[in-house]
From TrEMBL:
Top-tier EC class: transferase
InterPro entries registered for this protein in UniProt: PM/HMP-P_kinase-1 (IPR013749), PyrdxlKinase (IPR004625), Ribokinase-like (IPR029056)
Domain of life the protein comes from: Eukaryota
Protein name: Pyridoxal kinase
Pfam family, one: Phos_pyr_kin
Membrane-spanning ranges: none
Length: 324
């Protein structure tokens, strides 16, 4: 560190420059956004916190991680083994952070949480963290299932229905939107109606990670925000790869959080997130096609995509939709 190498003359011009540099590093460190991310951990592979942490770090965030489960691998494999965090485990971790004054965060991100008792704690955690930082942004990915199938316990649904009302940003997929609104989403108009219901319940920004309305070539992601009396609504067509991935929703939520913070612009955040995802998935799929598409080979190629995460290349673009 510069301070330690100042030598005997702390007043020299050179040493003053070093001190100035040191001070600017410190300011930069104080400005570093801090995310508390509560999601699954897998020993092998990339879902949950394993999918979210590296991209958030590469995009300039300090990430404090609480693992809602510690599984050997994601639930798509033959077996999944490992312990689940209990509500008392969570309370202890949060208490430790609070006692040591480590609980001032710019963002809270929640994803896969298997236990209703733990999910029940999140609402009060949001208000505790907002009492420490009233500007804290809560990003809730209501991870419940995909393609018409629940992969969590059904008791989580009523808890999520409440939780999304206090979230600043939510990132459900099409099936999760249906669950949250008790509304079948078969057309894009159904999806806009469901988004309106979620806005009416209090959620300021709704981003649907993907919808599918019978088109084999494209998925459609949708984003809508109500801020300061101003509405913005967007869609983006995503060229569909002929396979399915795991961990993509977790990566998507982390990228939306990061790019909303960095750009404060829904369109840029959506475009950067989707374009990063497409680049990561293409790399993953190209690899799997070459070596065989086993579960293991289909794990997201995140480490190999460092540059693409840091510098998304915009290939697909969002379009504004006129909504009042
Ligand atoms: N088969 C696919 N082809 C192209 N992009 C995909 C594919 N599957 C997922 N994605 C990308 O991953 C993002 C999140 O995936 P999604 O399936 O909506 O999340 P979840 O895992 O929560 O169901 C989508 O916005 C899309 O960009
Ligand atoms: C342990 C775990 N966490 C998170 C997820 C969510 O993955 P995705 O991002 O694909 O919704 C899954 C899905 O299998 C999972 O098994």
């Amino acid at each position: 560190m510069g301070i330690l190498n100042l030598g005997n003359n702390p007043c020299s011009l050179e040493s003053k420059a070093l001190i100035d540099q040191e001070i600017s590093y410190e300011i930069e460190m104080n400005d570093t956004p801090r995310v508390l991310s509560i999601q699954s951990h897998v020993v092998s592979g990339y879902v949950g916190n394993k999918s979210a942490t590296l991209p958030l770090q590469l995009l300039g965030f300090d990430v404090d991680v609480i693992n809602s489960v510690q599984f050997s691998n994601h639930t798509g494999y033959k077996v999944t083994k490992g312990p689940i965090l209990s509500d008392t485990d969570l309370d202890e971790l949060i208490q430790g952070l609070a006692i040591n004054g480590l609980d001032t965060y710019s963002h809270l991100l929640t994803g896969y949480i298997g236990s209703p008792q733990v999910l029940n704690r999140i609402a009060s955690l949001v208000s505790d963290l907002k009492s420490k930082n009233p500007h804290l942004i809560y990003v809730c990915d209501p991870v419940m299932g995909d393609n018409g199938k629940l992969y969590v316990r059904s008791e989580l649904l009523p808890i999520y229905k409440e939780l999304v009302t206090i979230a600043d940003i939510i990132t459900p997929n099409q099936f999760e939107v249906e669950l949250l609104t008790d509304k079948k989403v078969s057309t894009i108009e159904d999806a806009w109606d469901a988004i309106d219901i979620l806005h009416q319940r209090g959620c300021k920004t709704v981003v649907i990670s993907s919808t599918e309305f019978g088109n084999d070539d494209y998925l459609v992601a949708m984003a809508s925000s109500h801020a300061d009396g101003h509405r913005r609504a967007l869609t983006i067509n995503i060229p569909k790869l002929p396979t399915s991935f795991t961990g993509t929703g977790d990566l998507f939520a982390a990228l939306i959080l990061a790019w909303m913070h960095k750009t404060n612009n829904l369109k840029s955040a959506l475009e950067n997130s989707i374009n990063t995802l497409q680049a990561v998935l293409k790399k993953t799929w190209d690899y799997a096609k070459a070596v065989g598409d086993s579960r293991h080979n289909m794990e997201l190629k995140l480490v190999q995509s460092k540059n693409l995460i840091e510098n998304p290349q915009r290939v697909v673009f969002a379009v504004d939709v006129n909504k009042s």
